[in-house]
Design goal:
The structure is a single chain. This protein is mainly α. Helix 5 runs antiparallel to helix 6. It has two domains: 50 residues, no CATH class; 110 residues, Substrate Binding Domain Of Dnak, Chain:A, Domain 2 (Up-down Bundle). The protein is 79% helix and 0% strand. The two termini are 31 Å apart.
């Protein structure tokens, strides 16, 4: 379970880095990646890259990623971008986690309105089991925050928040499936 969460966090970080740095695979041509061009061989594409202007394809990819980013993720990203300390970054992530908890409760309440009592009872049972799982995962992840260095604290906070985020999105997806 820990490796799966770590992979998800790593993927999330890579996506955020991709969005923030404007990098994309389309900029890299296997012939150009490792070779040094002669001054005479500089192409228009390389000139436009040197000007650091985003390519149309990059801009579209950035916009698409931005559109698909959940508002809580956007708020957390924007908050972190304004921080100068790891503690400040952690505070942003704590706020995001609280927002994800609110999403869970929001969709649990919505599910109550569209399901039978028996079905809702099953959903609550699953939520109770997930809560047990969450507590066990939080305890396991806490090992990371005991290491020296604030980056380990950020990692632990991020992993815990990612777990809650995933549950919120799963509950929302269940709701969306049931209303259609």
């Amino acid at each position: 379970m820990y490796n799966k969460s770590m992979k998800r966090l790593t993927l999330y970080i890579l996506i955020v880095l991709l969005v923030t740095c404007g990098c994309s695979k389309s900029n890299l041509n296997s012939d150009e990646t490792f070779s040094q061009p002669n001054n005479q061989e500089i192409t228009n594409q390389e000139l436009s890259l040197n000007k650091e202007e985003p390519q149309p394809q990059e801009k579209e990819q950035k916009e698409e990623l931005e559109e698909n980013l959940h508002p809580i993720d956007k708020a957390e990203r924007d908050c972190i971008a304004k921080q100068d300390s790891t503690q400040g970054m952690n505070e942003c992530t704590y706020k995001a986690r609280e927002a994800w908890y609110k999403e869970i409760y929001k969709y649990l309440n919505l599910l109550k309105t569209i399901t039978s009592d028996d079905d809702y009872s099953s959903i609550l049972k699953a939520q109770s089991k997930w809560k047990e799982y969450q507590e066990a995962e939080f305890e396991a992840v806490s090992i990371i925050s005991e290491k020296q260095g604030t980056m380990f604290q950020n990692t632990a906070v991020g992993l815990k928040t990612d777990l809650v985020r995933k549950r919120a999105l799963d509950i929302k997806e269940l709701y969306n499936i049931l209303i259609n």
